[in-house]
């Protein structure tokens, strides 16, 4: 059972609007600038990831949010995996960076790459952009991600395609699992619990609370064909849902829909 959460009234809103949010933007501009400068000498992105991890720790420390990771010790991090996270909040990215013990790449939608500083960092550090409206460009990116993953670079994905508006897990979009099948790596189910309650969509009111990250057993992609992406997506979705709802204060819907079948494409869903 979770410990009682602090009250989030007027004082909490003012602290969030006038202290936390401006400080986070200041961190982003400052660390983003240093990260961009380092990119001219950082060929593999390790220095830029150090800046991203440090930026994440600064944010979470400032807003007093501890992140507790459960089960990562069961994962052989010397091998490349695809790590499939649920997506609840704009603060998910800092949580991911402090959670992951390895150098990795993130698959993100193209819109995020257009944001000042964050988008520039994503592009310069070699993250994978997915362009929804352009199937050819999307397929090129998926193949590039598969080659990178097969070559030993772990990949973080958000199969829901956007943030959840109500805290419930959304159906997983099968397109990202093309990368796992193509590269032949295992998929690790990852569930973040608490980031939705801390910062839901459409608000700047940060409500600090502990965040738990639950790590599931790796799911093999061996034996799946490209035409069976939906089956792998459904299996990973079920594993993430079991992890998430085992700890979350959000209750699951009466009937959780399974992932829809699609070609190797990515989200048509909103959010980020």
User: What is the CATH C level class of the domain at 65-247, in words?
Assistant: Alpha Beta
Query: Whole-number radius of gyration?
Result: 18 Å
Oligomeric state of shown chains: single chain
- If helices are DSSP runs of H or I spanning 4 or more residues, what is the number of helices? 8
Largest sheet: 7 strands, mixed
Low-confidence stretches: 1-5, 256-271
Second-tier CATH architecture of the domain at 65-247: 3-Layer(aba) Sandwich
CATH superfamily of the domain at 65-247: Glycerol-3-phosphate (1)-acyltransferase
Class by alpha and beta content: alpha/beta
Strands of the largest sheet, in order across it? 1-7-6-2-5-3-4
- CATH topology of the domain at 65-247, by name, is Glycerol-3-phosphate (1)-acyltransferase
Shape: globular
Short account of what is shown:
The chain is α/β, with parallel strands linked by helices and 272 residues long. The protein has eight helices and seven strands. The chain has a domain at 65-247: 3-Layer(aba) Sandwich (Glycerol-3-phosphate (1)-acyltransferase), CATH 3.40.1130.10.
